[in-house]
Amino acid sequence: MIEREEIDLDNCNPTSIWQEYQRGINYNRRKNLYTNTDRNYNFFHGKQWENAKLGDMSPIVINVIKPIVKYKVGVINQNAYSVVFSPSYLENNAKEANKLCELLSKHTDRFFENQNITSKLRTIVKDACINSEGIFFMYFDENEGRDGEVVGEIVDKNNIYYGDETNENIEEQPYIIIAFRKPVSVVREEATRKGVSREDIELIVSDEEKKERAGYINNTNNEELTPMCLELLKLYKKVNADGVKTVHFTKCTKFVEIEKEQDTKMKLYPVAHFVWEEEKGNARGMGDVEPNIPNQIEINKTEMRRAIIVKNSAYPKLAYNKSYIKNLKSLNQVGASIEVEGAGLDDIRKYIGYINGTSMSADSKYLLDELVNYTQNLAGAGDNASGNIDVTKTSARAILAVQQAQEQPLNEQLYRFKEFLESIARIYLDMIQNYMIDGLVISDEQEQQVLDENGNITTETVTVGVPVSYEALNELKTNVKVDITPTTPFSKMDMEQSLENLFTADKITFEEWVNALPYDSSYPKKRLEEIIKQREQIKKDISMMQQNAQNQMMQIQGLLNQQARQEDISNIANQGNENIRQFQNYLQQVGGQG
Fold this sequence. Notes:
By secondary structure, the chain is an alpha+beta fold. About 45% of the residues lie in helices and about 20% in strands.
C-alpha cells in the first residue's frame, strides 16, 4: 500500500463534495456543535468536572441528568410498535391491494427483526434525548445475498451535514452529506469495483480528519490501529431523464470520486431523523441535557461547598503546645505513648486538647434539595412520574393513571417518534419498489388442510412464499400508519387484574382467560396452555373409551337378539369388563380429571 507520505497531495484539488463538507464543518464549529455534543454526553455519563482545578479534593457528582434521560427514554421505548400499510385508493382490485399491504406489513416486521431495528431505535431515542437528534440511514446492499437486502444503520449527529441547517424537514433539504470513516483498504477495494483508475486509487490514503467525530475530545488515545480515511456520500434530488424528481447520490474521498452520479429512482431521501424538541431555525432541534447543565453544575458545586465545610469544621480538631511534646508524630498514632516534657500529668489538658466541631446552616441542604427537586420536577421526571411509588399500597390502575398524567409532557416526543417510524417505513417501501427489480417473495402463514397419520383431515398453519411482482409493487400506492401497544409494567398489571376479575366472576372460562393473557404475562402462560392441552387430551381419551364401551354393549344386544351362543356373549362381556378396568386405571392415573 502506498503511504500518504510518498504522494504529493499538495498539488491535488479536493473534490467539490469535500469543499461542501468543509463548509458544513465550519458552520458546525461556529454553532459549537462538536463541543456541545461531547459536553452533553459527558454530563449524561457523570463526567461533570472536566478541566476543573480541584487540587486534592475529589469531585462530587450528584447526577440528576442521567435519571431524567433514562426515564424519558424509557417512556418512549416502553411501547411496542408495528408498521401497518394500507391502500390509499379503492379500485376494482381493492382486495388484491389489501392483501399486498398485509404482506408488506409482515415483510417490514421481518426487516425490523432481521436488521435488529428495535435495538437501533432505542439508541436513536437516547441520542435524541441527550444530544437533540437521532439519525437512521438506509441503503441497499447488493452483496447481502443473491437479490440484495435493505440495510439500516445509525449515523452520529456529528457525521451528517444538511444543505439547509435551518430546516428540520429532511425531504426539503437541497442535499445531505454523510461522512463515513472507513479503513483505507476497504475504500480502495470499493473504488476498484467501481472502475476507478489505478492513479486515482493511489490518492486514497489515510488522513487525520477525525477531530469532528463524537467522543474525540474525551478519547486520550486517538491513535487508529488501521489506516483510516473519510468517505463522503452526497445525496441530492434532481429531475431525471424521465422528468421525475428523484434522489441521486455521489460518493468520494478528499481527492477521488469513487462513484459518479447515480439515480436511485427513489422519491425519498434514505435518511430519517428523530428530533427531540423543535427549535426554530435549527434543523437539529434541542435535547434534554443541554438546558439542565447549568442546574447540574450548581448542584455539584453546592454539594462540594458543603463537603468542604464539613471537612474543615464539622469534626473535632487536635490542638497542642508543641514546646512540651517530644514525639509529635505519636499524636496521630493509635495506642502510642506521648512524651511530655516540663509538665505534670495533672496539667496535661493545658497542653493537649480538642476543638469541638461547629454546626453548619441547614440553608445549604435546603438549597441542594430544592435544586434537585426543581430540576427533576420541571423536567417531568419526579418520583411519581418515574415510578418511585410503593406498589404494595397502590393499585396498578391508580399507578397507571398517575404515570399517564405525568407523561403528558412527553406526548410531543411520542408523536415525533411515531412520525419517525412512519418515515422509515415509507423509505423502506420506496427502496424495495426501486431496487427489487425481480420482485419479492414474501413469507406468509396460511391454513391448509392435510391428512394426519390416522387418515383424518386436519387444518394446519404452514409458512409459504408468496411472490410479488415488481410491477405490483410499483403500482401500489399506500398509506402508512404505526400501531402502538402500551407495554408498561403497570399497564400489563392492570390488564392481568382485569382479566383475573372476569375469570373469578365467571364471566369467562379458564381457557378464555389463558388465551387472553399477553405472551409476556407474569402468569406462566405456556404452562397453563400445556395444562389445557392435557385436559383436552384426557377428554378425548375418555370419550374414545366410552364410545368403545357403547359399541360393545350394542354388539352384546345384537347377539342376544340373534340368540347367539353363550360363549360369544361371555367373550364380549369379558372384553367389556377389561375395558372398564382399563378405564378405571386411566382415571386413577390422571387424578380423576375429566
